Structure formats: structure tokens, C-alpha cells
Amino acid sequence: MYQMQIIVDPVGFIRYLGHNSPCALGKGGLQRDKREGDGATPVGTFTMGRIFYRADRTTRPLSGLPCHPISPDMGWCDDPDHPDYNRLITLPHPARHEKLWRDDHVYDVVVELGYNTEPVIAGRGSAIFIHVAKPDYAPTEGCIALKFEDLLDLLQMCNEGDNVTIPAPQSP
């Protein structure tokens, strides 16, 4: 099966199959040595994982990736001291976490990236996603964010096994 090349340009574009879409990256820049809470987008090549979407706000995205509707009791553990760190969880949950069911629209469609997953290393960063950008493309907490329509266009081309490459910025 063909594996699509998805490249994130350090200046804020995502490139694939002739497409070149603007994206927001982490407010902490790009980092090889990512740490929890640094706001950085990790450098490397990461597998595209599950798509989660708000079925009350949008239809199931067309994609070769597995899709799951988000429910109000879904979250993602970002507490490095808990065994569920960097994993999908059910709320309520005793550890620090993010809610996937948000009032804003940034998680209306969200794709997990295979960052810090096999094995999960406490403190190396969690909840690294591709999700919907804020209207002004404000920097993220470490994720990649695209305009809603651009994200749906990308996902239509994706299949299991596709990767996203985030290269280190070039030194001046």
C-alpha cells in the first residue's frame, strides 16, 4: 500500500500530495527534546492514529484512519505521575487531564499522533494531536492545527500507516 508523505514545514505549513496548507504549531517552537508543559511541537516522524470527532457538530470524517465519535466522558491523561499518562481515559478521572469534549471547536476533529506512545515515557509530552486551528492560527500547546476544511481534506487522503514528519528547523 502507498504511504503518503506528510511534511510539516517549521514555518507553519503542512505539505502532502501537492497541497500546501497553513498550520499552527506549538508556542514553544519545535523541539527534539520535548517535555510535558513546554508548549513545543516534537521533532520526528509520527504515525497517524485514531480520529476523534464531535458527531453533534460534524459528520464522520472520510478517511482510511479509524474514526470514533467523542463523548462528554472522554479525556486524555497529561499527568506524568499517573499510569494512564498520554492515554485516552474515561472521565471522571483522578489524574490531571484534558477533556476531548470542548466548548470551543478545536477538538471538533482531532487526530492522535504516535508521539511518546511505544513506550510511554513519563514527562516526555502528551496529547500531541492534529486538530482544528483557532481562526487566527494562534500557537498551540504542542499540537499541529489546521483550518477545519484543510484538516478534512488531509484526512480524506490518509490511511493507516501514514506518517507525519516534523523536521528540525534549519540553523541560520
Radius of gyration: 15 Å
Query: Based on DSSP secondary structure assignment, what is the total number of beta strands?
Result: 14
Oligomer description: single chain
Helix fraction by DSSP (H/I, runs of at least 4)? under 10%
Mean pLDDT: 96
Query: What portion of residues belong to β-strands?
Result: 25-35%
Given helix and strand content, the structural type is mainly beta
Uncertain residue segments: none
Strand-and-helix sequence, N→C?
A: EEEEEEEEEEEEEHE
Q: Give the overall silhouette.
A: globular
Question: How large is the count of helical segments?
Answer: 1
Question: How far apart, in Å, are the first and last alpha carbons?
Answer: 38 Å
Largest sheet: 8 strands, mixed, barrel
Strand order of the largest sheet: 1-2-3-13-12-11-6-14
Describe it:
The protein has 172 residues and is mainly beta. It contains one helix and 14 strands. Strands 1-2-3-13-12-11-6-14 form an eight-stranded mixed β-barrel. The longest helix has 10 residues. The model has no long low-confidence stretch (mean pLDDT 96).
Q: Which key phrases capture this entry?
A:
three-stranded antiparallel sheet; globular; mainly beta; eight-stranded mixed beta barrel; 172 residues; single chain; 34% strand
Write the layout of secondary structure elements.
Elements: E1 5-9, E2 13-16, E3 19-24, E4 30-31, E5 41-42, E6 44-53, E7 67-69, E8 74-77, E9 88-90, E10 97-99, E11 109-113, E12 129-132, E13 144-146, H1 148-157, E14 163-166
Parallel strand pairs: 1-14, 4-5, 6-7, 12-13
Antiparallel strand pairs: 1-2, 2-3, 3-13, 6-11, 6-14, 8-9, 8-10, 11-12
